[in-house]
Design a protein that fits this description.
By secondary structure, the protein is an all-alpha fold. Helix content is 73%, strand content 0%. It has helices at 5-10, 17-32, 40-65, 70-95, 103-119, 133-142, 144-154, 161-182, 187-211. The longest helix has 26 residues, at 40-65.
């Protein structure tokens, strides 16, 4: 059985012609597969759309079910737009080959969005019979689909912790968006149960991305 290119590269460096020939043969075999190469902008759009599109669907479902209203959407519009903008910047910073310049901006926007969610939330305006941790669970759950898309796209790039963390922050805006529409509890609840869900999604994205072998080492 022909050894893989990864196995050959992991071997101790030797200069004899047989090893060089085997390495070149494995490299040619990899190149001959002609795997489709997708533009990073297309992949970034997938990650952003997976999150933003899902939030739009969630908003529509909540409207149909009467769990929110047009007035609530208008009142929350600045915060919702900020979450979408944060998702876009974090996504571009994570997927773009030259995204290092956007990385600090993505982190700062995520922190600013989290702070805005807390300071814009007043005292509880409603009551619920459900335990508060249901918000955390639902926020993590609604982020699973964008998380899978983000991890799949990240496997096509060289792993970097900041890149994976940014992708997780982008995915985490999905649950934060849901919390602004479906929850009317206090700012203390937002800190303890909404922002914790955002952090969990970001850390899980980082951990899963770290554990998977990249399909490419492109920047």
């Amino acid at each position: 059985m022909r050894p893989s290119l990864d196995a050959l590269l992991a071997e101790e460096l030797r200069t004899d012609g047989a090893v060089m020939e085997r390495t070149l043969s494995a490299a040619r075999a990899e190149l001959a597969q002609r795997r489709p190469v997708r533009r990073w902008r297309t992949q970034a759009t997938w990650v952003f759309t997976a999150s933003a599109g899902l939030t739009a669907v969630v908003a529509g479902v909540l409207l149909v079910l009467g769990r929110t209203s047009g007035a609530v959407l208008l009142g929350r519009a600045p915060l919702l737009a900020l979450l979408w903008a944060t998702s876009a910047v974090c996504t571009w910073g994570a997927i773009s080959p030259r995204g290092r310049k956007l990385e600090p901006w993505g982190v700062m926007m995520a922190v600013a969005s989290a702070a805005a969610l807390v300071f814009a939330r007043g005292p509880a305006s409603g009551e619920t019979t459900l335990p508060e941790w249901v918000c955390t669970l639902s926020h993590v759950g609604v982020g699973l689909v964008p998380l899978v898309v983000a991890v799949a796209v990240l496997r096509g790039t060289a792993f970097r912790p900041v890149r994976a963390l940014l992708a997780g922050l982008s995915v985490g805006t999905t649950g934060a968006f849901l919390g602004e529409l479906a929850c009317t509890l206090s700012w203390q609840h937002v800190v303890g149960y909404h922002l914790s869900a955002w952090a969990i999604v970001a850390v899980v994205t980082l951990a899963v991305s770290m554990s998977l072998k990249p399909r490419s080492f492109a920047p």
